[in-house]
Each structure stands twice: as structure tokens, then as C-alpha cells.
Design brief:
The chain is mainly alpha-helical. 26% of the residues lie in helices and 0% in strands. It is flat, with a radius of gyration of 38 Å. The relative contact order is 0.04. This is Small secreted hydrophilic protein. Keywords: Signal. It comes from Streptomyces bluensis.
């Protein structure tokens, strides 16, 4: 079989990306696996609070119902009420 330009182009399309990928893989750094400490100690005890101020409990939120503000449709900068059909501005 004759090695034609079409075969050379096909080989280049396949071989060049594979060569780039292989070179990139060969030159890449391999990270070390993370090292786990042999023993982990947790602090046992209450969280530290300033000794000068006594701990005062915060009051619980109440279930107070707040009324809605009144709905107004006439603000000073609203000009929608004078727009009519065909009024482009």
C-alpha cells in the first residue's frame, strides 16, 4: 500500500495529540499523599469566656406579631398613572 498524503495527515491527527498527552503526563508532578498525625487531641472543657463579665443569658425572642405597613400607590416619583395607550414618552 502506498503511503499517501491522506494517510500522513490521518497519522498526524492521531499521533500529535497522543504525543502531547504522553509528554504532559510524563513531565507532570505527582503530589505526595497527605500525612495524617498519629494522635489527635481535642480540648476538653467549656469554651473560654472572659472572667470579668458574668455570663448573662440572652432573652428569648418573643412571638410578637408586627402589622404590615400600609399599601400606597401614589408615590411622588411614580408617573405610571398618566401613561395612556400610545404614549411613548
Amino acid at each position: 500500500m502506498v503511503f499517501s498524503r491522506r494517510m500522513a495527515a490521518l497519522a498526524a491527527v492521531v499521533v500529535i495529540p497522543l504525543g502531547i498527552a504522553a509528554t504532559s503526563f510524563a513531565l507532570s508532578d505527582r503530589p505526595e499523599s497527605p500525612k495524617v498525625p498519629p494522635k489527635v487531641e481535642l480540648d476538653s472543657g467549656s469554651p473560654s469566656s472572659p472572667a470579668s463579665t458574668p455570663a448573662t443569658p440572652t432573652p428569648a425572642p418573643s412571638d410578637e406579631v408586627v402589622s404590615r405597613p400600609p399599601v400606597t400607590d401614589s408615590s411622588a416619583d411614580d408617573d405610571d398613572d398618566d401613561d395612556g395607550p400610545g404614549d411613548d414618552g
